[in-house]
Amino acid sequence: MERDDIDVLLDCGAFTAKSTGMEITLQEYCTFLDKWADRLFRYLALDVVGNPAGTDANLQAMLAAGYRPVPVHVLGDGQERMDYLFSISDYVACAGLKRPGKGHCSPEYIKQKMQWAAGRNVHWLGFVREEFFSLRPYSVDSNSWASSQMYGRMDIYLGAGKWIDCNYATRGKVIKNKQFRAILDTLGISATQLNNKEHWRSNASLGMDAFVSRHVTVDSWVRYVIDIYKKFGTRVFIATGLSDSNDECLRNAIARHRSEFESL
Asked: In terms of pTM, does the model score above 0.85?
């Protein structure tokens, strides 16, 4: 939040709140904005998952108080609502693309949203599927980059839209891949580390630099962000919490590829 070289799009956390039973009050959210709004690229309105009326009430309260959030087009909203949101903002977030406990929406749903947007700038909340990027969203976000932390899995981006993945038990299926070995060499990760189970999870005694599955996955997502922008012009925001333990690893990966970002 304090770095000028990173654009921060602030999400209110409504999806996480719905999934975990947490509550985010409008006053709490606005108090945070009062402190940080001038450091943000943009910030979203406080939506209420599954509650269009509650979402609109929060939006109107924020507008009345002088805030200018990115409004959210939620599940159940239609074209008239989309047109209204664009009348108050040049940028609209689309929710309902990934639903708590139900996974991704149908292709028809997202295509309908994009038809209603009619070429205007939209952000897809929690939805990053490359086969749909031809619809040209302005931006998207995902927390899949943190899969190593959550699931002990290594997601490996080989470039040109191609991914492979493994965990400790299945690492043998990817180690023979020349592109993967080149990635390990670039990151300074040895076969000995890869074959040591202790390096596949957060381990205080080894230090965070030894968390090899995380380093590969985070670096893969940073390279993917660059490739997607080059191919589609879509900005991929890497979703992270305010105190996520992956932050240092993410900062290092961004620094590693800084010249590529600067050339975009």
From this structure: yes
